Amino acid sequence: MKVVLLGTAAGGGFPQWNCACALCAAARDGKLPARTQECVAVSGNSRDWWLLNASPDIRTQLTATPELAPGPGPRDTPVRGVLLTDAEADHVMGLTILRGGAALKVYAAPPVLATLAPLRAMLDRYAPWEWADSLTEGGFVLAGGLVVSAHPVGSKAPKYADGAAADAPWVTAYRIEDLATGGVLVYAPCLGRWTPELDALLATATCALLDGTFYAADEMGTAVRSPNGQAAMGHLPVSGARGSLTALARHLGPRRIYTHLNNTNPLLDPASDARARVTATGVEVLPDGSQFVV
């Protein structure tokens, strides 16, 4: 299975357009590399490609990736569809850029499909798409030889979802297995908490792409004086006794990579103490455009 990290930043990208924190200032000065909003492409045969989430930066990401270039026909594309982990704006707005793409298929959990009903109606007027329940029992098979199962990992609804059920499976992780090689990718860019189910998923994984949004629980307040830290935004911090880095110490088998980095996260700086600590444990932080095989 080929994997391309099209984007690795959280919502707003890096630097964020309306943020003057120290990290964003360094990125604007060219001292740190910029990053686009989180999105991944996967393929089991190098011909049929599937997007994991659809960021607002999807056009830039697609045009920067030769494997995803259109052809051979004038309107042919190797992109077959999208697997959504949630309904957050920075994960679904890219669907509007893909409008008109013929015969695309979008997988998402039922609450996500329901809240996207107005957007779905608009997109289907450009070209009919197939919209499918990602939580279907037994999982599903993607063109290219990939078998997928979705697993609820959170119940945080997006801000724009009126009357959202508090206990619904709004956030999911994906387990993607290559039938030809047995390689398994676990994709979980949004984690509100660590669960035994997640431990079970990582026990079978060859590689894990995980939520690295915030390094510390008080990061937003420290960096930009915001009262809304990771708890309000539904993201488990990397550091701390109950952080994801502590949990990952139980899973030394798979390759482990942090993605969805917020613009306040010191992991964005390769020279930071935070990056050194994470790297010392064997967990990676990769740049946009990174490609690897699972």
Note the run of SSEs as H and E: EHEEHEHHEHHEEEEEHEHHHEHEE
What gyration radius follows from the Cα positions, in whole Å?
18 Å
Q: How many β-strands, per DSSP?
A: 14
Helix content: 10-25%
Structural class: alpha/beta
Give, in spatial order, the strands making up the sheet with the most strands: 6-5-4-3-2-1-14
Beta-strand content estimate: 15-25%
Instruction: State the shape.
Output: globular
Pathway: Cofactor biosynthesis; pyrroloquinoline quinone biosynthesis
Keywords: PQQ biosynthesis, Transport
Function: May be involved in the transport of PQQ or its precursor to the periplasm.
Protein name: Coenzyme PQQ synthesis protein B
Word description of this protein:
Pfam families: Lactamase_B_2. Keywords: PQQ biosynthesis, Transport. Belongs to the PqqB family. InterPro entries: Metallo-B-lactamas, PQQ_synth_PqqB, RibonucZ/Hydroxyglut_hydro. With 294 residues, the protein is an alpha/beta fold. It is built from eleven helices and 14 strands. The protein has helices at residues 22-28, 58-63, 89-92, 94-97, 110-115, 117-124, 196-203, 219-224, 230-233, 244-248, 273-280; strands spanning 2-7, 39-43, 49-52, 79-83, 105-108, 130-133, 140-142, 146-154, 171-178, 184-188, 207-211, 255-259, 284-285, 291-293. The strands form two sheets. The chain has a seven-stranded mixed β-sheet. Strands 7-8-9-10-11-12-13 form a seven-stranded mixed β-sheet, covered by helices on one side. The mean pLDDT is 94.
Short description:
With 294 residues, the protein is an alpha/beta fold.
What key attributes describe this structure?
alpha/beta; 294 residues; 22% helix; 7-stranded mixed β-sheet
